[in-house]
Design brief:
The radius of gyration is 30 Å and the shape is elongated. The chain is mostly helical. Strands 2-1-3 form a three-stranded antiparallel sheet. Among the domains are: 50 residues; 53 residues, no CATH class. The longest helix has 41 residues. Helices cover 59% and strands 6% of the residues. Helix 4 packs antiparallel against helix 5. It comes from Campylobacter cuniculorum. Keywords: Membrane, TPR repeat, Transmembrane, Transmembrane helix. InterPro entries: TPR-like_helical_dom_sf, TPR_rpt.
Length: 325
């Protein structure tokens, strides 16, 4: 055992052993990196082959004359024009052309978005997981994966993913309760059991959860009128008439009698009432604005389909001609 205690031996011998040890560690590290990179390249090659389609112009796109930036620009053009198959092939070729992890991460994310838009959710999920292997703290990838999980009804995985976003400083408390509600709805329970479990959730200041409760069970918990107006228009059942907004809405639809001294505050509802009272066919037309990205949608959303944010939907309505009906 004394052999290992170099302080009792010639200092030159100790220096030689130290040099040999450093050399061995350096060689081992080099060999490990070599095989790790080789393994990563093989996995990437396997990934590309799995998603790759036969393409007549594939070799042309692989030419050295086309830079990575050119390929990405071309892929973006095809994505915007809706030619998703061509866009995915170009992104796969772009992955072959770069070994830079940051660039690969961005390409993976762009490829996942194309698959998502095209409706290939499983492919989008797999690509996003590859992006997150490079940088697990990629918020954009995590948020898109959250929407993919929602569409695939992977609620357990979604709740775990929200914990990751919480660690990154995101406020996920309200969204967490909403996902729990979706999970309850997907379980093999009776309607009564589902309703009981649903009502046990935390509804405090959670407008989207309250809307979902009304949408599923028509249970009214003094929800804000602005969050339910389109659902109220479909149901045509007067309720909460003590509230001025609710009363004004149902009066405009001629579902309740006029109160003494009542005056309209909403110009759209006033116009609707005047048109209906004068024999014109009119209806309310709804649109939905994302307060985060400012995109206008034709259908209500709990999560914005463009920026993937939760609880950013504002319901807009206007009076439209209904003569065709």
């Amino acid at each position: 055992m004394d052999f290992f205690f170099v302080e009792y031996r010639d200092p030159l011998v100790g220096l030689i052993f130290l040099t040999i040890l450093i050399f061995v560690v350096a060689v081992a590290n080099y060999v490990w990196k070599f095989y790790a990179n080789k393994d990563a390249e093989q996995k990437l090659e396997s990934f590309i082959k799995k998603f790759e389609l036969n393409h007549t112009h594939k070799e042309l796109l692989r030419a050295q004359s086309l830079s990575l930036n050119n390929l990405i620009f071309l892929a973006e053009i095809f994505t915007k024009s809706g030619e998703f198959e061509k866009a995915t092939q170009i992104y796969l070729i772009a992955l072959e052309k770069t070994a830079d992890k940051d660039k690969r991460e961005k390409i993976f994310l762009s490829l996942a978005k194309v698959y998502f838009k095209a409706g290939f959710l499983e492919k989008s999920r797999e690509v996003l997981l590859n992006a997150l292997k490079i940088r697990p703290r990629n918020k954009e990838a995590l948020k898109l994966l959250k929407i993919v999980y929602l569409k695939l009804k992977f609620y357990k995985e979604n709740l775990e993913l929200l914990e990751c976003l919480f660690e990154l400083g995101e406020d996920i408390s309200k969204e967490n309760e909403f996902i729990k509600a979706l999970k309850i709805e997907s379980e093999n329970l009776s309607q009564e059991q589902k309703q009981q479990s649903f009502l046990s959730l935390d509804f405090k200041d959670n407008a989207m959860l309250e809307r979902y409760l009304f949408e599923k069970y028509e249970i009214f918990k003094k929800q804000e009128f602005s969050n339910l107006v389109d659902l109220l228009y479909k149901s045509l059942k007067p309720l909460n008439l003590d509230d001025e907004e609710y009363y004004e809405f149902f009066y405009a639809l001629s579902l309740v009698d006029k109160k003494e001294g009542f005056q309209f505050k909403n110009s759209h509802l006033k116009m609707l009432k005047i048109l209906k009272d004068n024999g014109f066919k009119a209806r309310l037309d709804f649109s939905y604005l994302c307060l985060e990205c400012k995109n206008l949608m034709p259908l209500f959303f709990y999560h914005c389909p463009v920026c993937y944010e939760f609880n950013r939907c504002k319901i807009l309505f206007e009076v439209k001609n209904d003569e065709e009906n």
